[in-house]
């Protein structure tokens, strides 16, 4: 009888473990797919027309044009310092997914490099390359990965000095496009800036309209535990409110503001602490006043 009870108790745990494995495999499959789509856009649309993406990939394209070093090698080599920073800021799971995404991206860049270019028309390259790149990057970010390390630096600066992530990334890219204008002509810089705009808009659509700033309202029974976990793991403070459900009775309501790269981590954290919690995530168009954060 005791053995039967043990077997019955072990079944849900085994089933839960299998579901976690399947979920993890699905996430990494989507990371690989997103990386492949992004690499296709870069090699088949942007590189042939000397149109740059932003961040590390844009720097890699410039160095590739000047030195003929393989783009696949440059993206990996230049992203390594940012991966180290990302590990310190966002933890091991981010490092694993970001590292996997970047390796897949580099691998597919190598695969697509010898293929015939899709077009040599600049306007077509900007429009279709930007849209396809936005789809690929959006998939990667939606499943917790990252293809460009500059966003991790932007998050670090945001946590230390309260600088907006989106504005910091934009400043990085403006500097990169300015250098590209000096090297390859300002028409290329303008094409690159237009591509960046299209990519960012498509990326937002893929991510269900995610902007840089997001706000979460979490209704739970374990408010203190979740608030502590958000503070310790994400460096974000939480406003704790008291509420009462019509049917469920007394509840704790948590309110937290964060950035888009932290959405996945927040959802994973809440599922660990209280799978029954109700979570609503909304866009934040503007933040006024001081938002206290844990100093890293």
How would you portray this structure in words?
By secondary structure, the protein is an alpha+beta fold. The protein has helices at 2-46, 55-67, 71-90, 92-112, 122-142, 150-161, 165-184, 186-206, 223-234, 263-273, and strands at residues 213-220, 239-245, 249-259, 278-283. It has a four-stranded antiparallel sheet, covered by helices on one side. Helix 2 runs antiparallel to helix 3 and helix 3 (71-90) runs antiparallel to helix 4. The protein is elongated and about 65 Å long. The N and C termini lie far apart (53 Å). The relative contact order is 0.13.
What's a concise summary of this model?
This protein is α+β, with helices and mostly antiparallel strands and 296 residues long.
């Amino acid at each position: 009888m005791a053995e039967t009870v043990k077997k019955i108790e072990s079944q849900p745990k085994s089933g839960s473990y299998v579901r976690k494995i399947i979920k993890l495999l699905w996430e990494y499959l989507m990371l690989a797919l997103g990386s492949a789509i992004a690499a296709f856009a870069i090699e088949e649309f942007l590189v042939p027309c000397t149109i740059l993406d932003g961040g590390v990939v844009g720097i890699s394209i410039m160095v590739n044009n000047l030195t003929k070093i393989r783009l696949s090698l440059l993206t990996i080599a230049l992203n390594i310092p940012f991966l180290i920073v990302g590990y310190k800021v966002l933890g091991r799971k981010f490092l694993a997914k970001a590292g996997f995404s970047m390796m897949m991206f580099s691998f597919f860049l190598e695969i697509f490099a010898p293929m015939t270019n899709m077009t040599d028309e600049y306007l077509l390259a900007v429009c279709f390359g930007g849209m396809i790149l936005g789809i690929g990057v959006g998939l990667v970010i939606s499943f917790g990965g990252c293809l460009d390390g500059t966003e991790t630096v932007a998050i670090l600066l945001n946590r230390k000095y309260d600088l907006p992530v989106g504005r910091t990334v934009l400043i990085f890219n403006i500097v990169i496009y300015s250098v590209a204008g000096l090297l390859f002509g300002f028409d290329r810089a303008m094409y690159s800036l237009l591509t960046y705009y299209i990519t960012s808009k498509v990326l937002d659509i893929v991510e269900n309209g995610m902007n840089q700033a997001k706000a979460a309202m979490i209704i739970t029974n374990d408010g203190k535990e979740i608030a502590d976990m958000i503070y310790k793991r994400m460096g974000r403070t939480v406003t704790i409110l008291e509420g009462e459900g019509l049917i469920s009775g007394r509840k704790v309501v948590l309110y937290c503001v964060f950035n888009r790269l932290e959405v996945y981590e927040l959802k994973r954290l809440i599922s660990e602490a209280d799978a029954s919690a109700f979570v609503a995530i909304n866009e934040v168009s503007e933040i006024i006043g001081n938002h206290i954060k844990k100093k890293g």
